[in-house]
């Protein structure tokens, strides 16, 4: 019996290698599973395989696989399958972590990791729903932004050790309409328009469009009480809000309040968010925020 499970499992792991374009095509002993499963549409670094009484999640970033076994199945009693690369658990299980801020992927792909989390908690259906809501809202925003006639030029720059990376050359900056200042700072409170202009250190500021349009932004508008940027947290799961911010930065309406970016030249300050700012019961799962989009 154990051998058979292992055969199915290794075939499951082998089958994972041919996942293609987000479509799940498992080789060999494929099992039809309906409901409560997640299919990967956009993310590149993890894969999920479903068997009859188990699921396998493969994380391509650390090379580890997890075998999650239904707790009331025979397999749960009989199978112990742990190697340095594969660990098996009887579900539900918790306790694992990942640091999404270092993933070299788009906003979009990062959001799909909610499905990775969902598999561990048996809430694939909800994870799928949330991802679908986020993705369709994101795509709608992309479409509406793509129809705009103007194409502003954006520069995302950082000031470190006295030097701006990207460029500080005044002649190059003249073409820039919107500037995002990604300079890391210990104290976002103190980083204001005055400091930006000091760092900019360009005498003739008359021809810089981002100054005359007052369009200099930082991505540190939302901070936790221990000064962690929500940019590395909330923004990961809600790429549609990041995109909506960017659209407001590029095509200002003045009527949309950005979530993650603050305008330095308009004197926008950072906001510290503590527990008291959470307007729902903390045991209730958060719903994704959707942006009005036609
Ligand atoms: C998915 O699993 C949840 C929790 O076990 C259950 O309540 C729900 O009915 C399942 N949905 C489907 C479509 O099977
Ligand atoms: C859970 O996380 C804690 C803290 O990182 C660790 O000490 C513990 O070994 C983990 N437990 C399991 C089952 O991985
Ligand atoms: C920026 O901060 C400095 C020091 O805290 C302060 O002196 C200055 O007035 C501030 N500038 C603006 C535009 O608020």
From TrEMBL:
Q: Which organism is it from?
A: Ambrosia artemisiifolia
Would you indicate the residue range of the signal peptide? 1-28
Family matches, as SUPFAM superfamilies: Helical backbone' metal receptor
Q: Which lineage is the organism of this entry classified under, starting from the top rank?
A: Eukaryota, Viridiplantae, Streptophyta, Embryophyta, Tracheophyta
Descriptive protein name: Uncharacterized protein
- Please give the superkingdom of this protein's source: Eukaryota
Keywords on this record?
Signal
